[in-house]
Amino acid sequence: MSCSSEDTGYEPTAQPLDIPAIFLDNIIPPVIPNDNPQTVEGIALGKKLFFDRILSANGTQACASCHSPQNAFTDNTPTSSGVDGIFGTRNSMPLFNLAWNYNERFNWDGTAFSLERQAEEPVENPIELHSNWEAVVGRLQQHPEYPELFRLAFKTSTITKELTTKAIAQFERTLISANSKFDRYSVGQATLTLQELNGLDVFLREDKGDCFHCHGNPNNPLWTDNDFHNNGLDSNFSDLGLGEVTGDPNDNGKFKSPSLRNLAYTAPYMHDGRFTTLDEVINHYSEGLQNSSTIDPLMKKINEGGVQLTSQEKEDLKAFLLTLSDPSFVSNQDFND
Predict the structure, then answer these.
(1) Which residues, at least 6 apart from 162, have a Cβ–Cβ distance to it below 8 Å?
(2) Residue 4 belongs to a domain
(3) Is the pLDDT reported for residue 44 higher than 70?
(4) Which of 17, 199, 281, 325 has the fewest other C-beta atoms within 10 Å?
């Protein structure tokens, strides 16, 4: 059986996502493609591939090189360098709760329309792994372990790009973060300080931080709308973001709203990593907004440069935002090599 290219009497072991209660109570079910169900074997294969440098042209980098577990699956540099030492122009996005991205548009600019498709591009990108899929599939097919692992995951030892990205997507969908202090507070298992509660109030009030339109509220534990916005970073754009993808000038300068979870681990911030600290991010929204023709209507205080928070409100807001970080996520051995 183990030598057969196609197994007709064998089925991989189903492994549905372990969905936290706080998600079950507040958001709709995850997006799992019918042609790529979660299995024990597929997840294990995807994890091995995610950490394996075999996907890169010269065997020096893996997906995990720019998406490390201790940084909530991003890295700690403004932009990342690929196998040739060339730095890109975008910050590496953190990876968690990806199965609840309902518009199924991934990357800062929405170029990928599924998690499986998102896993394709970095392999061939010249500023990332800079390989090609034909070579990668060849290396995997000649590997002493991978043909059998693919057989166990997909009932065939014939390796393809499509099966490779399916396995990676299965692993990435297991990266669920839902055990922050605020999560525990929401289910009555933790207490917030007065400062943290004041920060939540700043976050939710339209006459204060007004953060919730793009980044959710306690009833949206994703802490993002997964949509694209021009949040006033620049008055002119060297990177068009979504506009480059759609060709619509009205989309210029729009980038995906990242989740506010795990901010303690994901610095630097914004699509280009321009802000080193959370204080800089808060200052941007408070008094650093830049106007442009595509500024999001939600940036209602653009003419005043921002929402004009007091020093105390900034400290309170920061204290609340840090309650959304999940130490158990970055230390979870199921997510580490």
Answers:
(1) 116
(2) no
(3) yes
(4) 17
Residues 6+ apart with CB under 8 A from 303: 291
pLDDT at 252 over 60: yes
Query: What are the pLDDT digits (tens) for 270-301?
Result: 999 999 999 999 999 999 999 999 999 999 99
Report pLDDT for 5.
53
Q: Which helix (H) or strand (E) holds 233?
A: none
**Domain of 135?**
21-176
Q: By CB neighbour count within 10 A (0-12 exposed, 13-18 middle, 19+ buried), where does 311 fall?
A: exposed
Indicate whether 2 pLDDT > 50: no
Rounded to whole angstroms, how far apart are CA atoms 243 and 108? Answer: 11
| Separation CA 41–CA 38 (nearest Å) | 9
Spatial separation of the C-alpha atoms in residues 91 and 20, rounded to whole Å: 28
Domain identity same for 215 and 185? yes
Residue carrying structure tokens 């059986």: 1
Which helix (H) or strand (E) covers residue 222, if one does?
none
Please give the full DSSP string across 287-335, using - where no structure is assigned: H-----TT--TT-TTGGGTS----HHHHHHHHHHHHTT--HHHHT-GGG
Q: How far apart are CA 223 and CA 204, in angstroms?
A: 12
Phi, psi angles (nearest 5°) of residue 112:
-100, 130
Q: SS3 for 14? A: strand
Q: Are 223 and 260 in contact, with CB atoms under 8 Å apart?
A: yes
Query: Could you tell me if 115 and 169 are in contact, meaning their C-beta atoms sit under 8 angstroms apart?
Result: yes
Please check whether residues 203 and 171 belong to one and the same domain: no
